[in-house]
């Protein structure tokens, strides 16, 4: 606990927190702006690909630009919780980052509300479950899409050389993929802070639990799957290295013991006296 309290006193620590706030704010502002229909009487007039690319390209651009400033940003409470479960962030740090992300999402939705015409203040990017699917199906969609996005997040930031230095590229592309699957059914949130901000501003809370439980569980499983499949995290590498050394020591000790054991049995027969002597 002493190390985390020392880190909190540093300027770089709070710079990262500020970046989480700013990144989430701009992500919600720009992404949700793309969901406003051109025809307010027809919500279906929103172009699905426009929304997908708006969220995906915004995430990719922001994360890549802020990478040299604060390192790999999370800008998603679900990803932060996954990082906590895989021991990549401290519990206090995760709580502060989640708070900054939620406040940033609220700020982004509030700015969007202030800069858009009053006649288009209908939903402003509020995510809701479509009437054609059930709540369990909506949970499954959010779970799957966030699983893929979190797996891509871990892969991109653990292997920057594979993507030519564009560590945020897998995350942005996975968000575009997620929208092509889930936009027409759940709005493809994949980010609790992205759903929380518009929900507060527009006071729309229908099935809001789906956009927390689904992404959080999907992100946790995605992060754990990556860690135990590739052994990317330091904790997993240490665990595997320790296990390997233990097995090698056991095998070496067993081989030494096997050398000391006799390979064949020998018997000594006492000589009998000659009766003619």
What does the model show?
- The protein is an all-alpha fold and 277 residues long.
- It has a single domain (2-118, 126-234), classed as Up-down Bundle (Glycerol uptake facilitator protein), CATH 1.20.1080.
- Helices cover 68% and strands 0% of the residues.
- The protein has 10 helices and no strands.
- It has helices at residues 2-8, 11-33, 48-70, 77-85, 91-115, 135-158, 169-186, 192-202, 210-230, 234-260.
- Helix 2 packs parallel to helix 5, helix 2 (11-33) crosses helix 8 (192-202) and helix 4 (77-85) packs across helix 9 (210-230).
- The chain crosses the membrane at residues 21-40, 52-70, 91-116, 136-156, 168-189, 209-228.
- It is a multi-pass membrane protein.
- Pfam families: MIP (PF00230).
């Amino acid at each position: 606990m002493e190390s985390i309290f020392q880190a909190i006193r540093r300027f770089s620590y709070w710079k990262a927190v500020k970046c989480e706030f700013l990144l989430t704010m701009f992500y919600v502002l720009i992404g949700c702006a793309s969901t406003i229909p051109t025809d307010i009487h027809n919500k279906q007039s929103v172009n699905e690909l426009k929304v997908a690319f708006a969220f995906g390209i915004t995430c990719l651009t922001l994360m890549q630009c802020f990478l040299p400033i604060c390192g790999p940003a999370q800008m998603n409470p679900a990803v932060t919780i996954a990082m906590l479960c895989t021991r990549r962030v401290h519990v206090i740090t995760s709580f502060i980052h989640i708070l900054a992300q939620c406040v940033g999402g609220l700020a982004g939705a509030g700015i969007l509300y202030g800069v858009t015409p009053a006649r288009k203040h209908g939903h402003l990017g509020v995510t809701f479950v479509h009437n054609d699917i059930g709540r369990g199906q909506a949970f499954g969609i959010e779970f799957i899409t966030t699983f893929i996005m979190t797996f891509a997040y871990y892969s991109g930031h653990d292997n920057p050389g594979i993507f030519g230095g564009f560590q945020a590229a897998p995350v942005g592309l996975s968000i575009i993929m997620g929208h092509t699957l889930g936009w027409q059914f759940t709005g493809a949130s994949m980010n609790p802070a992205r759903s929380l901000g518009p929900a507060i501003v527009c006071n729309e809370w229908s099935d809001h639990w789906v956009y927390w439980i689904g992404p959080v569980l999907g992100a946790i499983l995605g992060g754990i799957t990556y860690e135990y499949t590739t052994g990317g995290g330091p904790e997993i590498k240490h665990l595997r290295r320790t296990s390997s050394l233990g097995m090698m020591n056991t095998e070496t000790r067993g081989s030494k013991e096997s050398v000391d054991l006799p390979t064949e049995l020998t018997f000594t027969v006492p000589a009998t006296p000659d009766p003619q002597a």
